[in-house]
Specification:
Strand content: 15-25%
Structural class: alpha/beta
Low-confidence stretches: 187-202, 396-402
Mean pLDDT: 90
Number of strands: 11
Number of helices: 14
Helix content: 40-55%
Order of helices and strands: HEHEHEHEEHHHHHHEEHHEEHEEH
Strand order of the largest sheet: 6-7-8-9-11-10
Shape: globular
Length: 439
Amino acid sequence: MAFPRNSLRAFLSHAKKSLSTAIQSSQKITLVAGNESADLDSLTSSMLYAYIRSMNPPLNAFAPLYIPLLNIPSADISLRPEFKALFRHANIEAEHLVTLDDLPEPGGSGLKPEDTQWILVDHNKLQGAMGETYGSRVRGVIDHHEDEGVVPQNTDPEPRVIEKCGSCTSLVVRTLRSSWDASTEGSSLASGAAHTQGDSLVNDASVSRTWDAQVARMALASILIDTANLTAEYKVEEADRDAVDYLEAKIYLSPRDAAGWDRTNFYEEIDAVERDIGALSFNDILRKDYKQWNENGLTLGISSVVKPLDFVIKKAIQHNSGEDKETEFVTAIGDFMAARSLTIFAIMTTSTSETGEFQRELYVQALSAGHAAAGTFAKEAAKELRLEDHSVGMLEGKPGAMQPESEGPWRKIWMQRDLGKSRKQVAPLLRRAMAAESG
């Protein structure tokens, strides 16, 4: 049975309760999971897909209710202040989200693989213990990363969409917009729905449009952040522009929302909050937007940081141990790697230069088992990423060149001049180097 037309807030509350009931009674469930970095795009694409699909599920759906999963523990939501800023615009709260805390441990008896179906958004391969337990149950995907080749080619009745785009949420909008329109036009509102939302609106059409505007703002947040308000020409695709037009039209149809809507102000609000990470610790900065992969016995981790590398270094050495700055920074990175059993770790930064230009830096550190792979990456990716040796003032330029094994971990800093290459492109290059060296 389809979920009746209602707000995103009501849907999320219902999904969370239904998940608990399904686990306890071994009912079938469909989970819509973003990737383990759990950034804005993973959050909004999973919620948007689950919300629209649940109101208009396929006739032969595995389970009619689609449950959005934020792929982190609930405690880690606090590392993402941009979520809190967005929640206000979408009339939801952190407590409404389904997180890893709401699922039994993978491999246990609490949630049998055969009772689940997984739809992946913003990635196309489940990683780690989740992938080992439920990887074979993936039955659909919408993603804008490199195709891992593990999702079946035929995922009917769910989509299989893997293509280049600024934001995965844009692809979800394009894929499900006809279903959203059909739900808006053809479904009746739940009795008393306006009162459950604290709305003073008196007619169903107006309430429905308010709900659509809330969902539209939620979806717009990640698209605008990922494309710099559609100004990042190296990232923006037609699907992004079309999605923004479509979502803004939803807002302008709402009497309560149209007059006060300003896309630039909205983007700048979310962007400013996302970049305000000064209160986070060194470890939390690296954990905030982090992804990990295993490749032929080697383990890679990559953190994306919305501040220059100099900021990260200062965070690492602010509790001076008496060591020189380079040693202290390398040791701090080494501790982060050891806690996750990493062979190679990379930090990718995005920031604005003193002259107002967008820039990317790349730092790579590798243990002895990853020296060869790191060297291969440095050689083969240099041209594709337009890497230039780089030094950061606080380290006096020392990591600007490869360090011999006898002097500690392999490490290097570059300026990445190809600004269009994000983690979506850098991670596959590192993983291919790891596969080549360890095969």
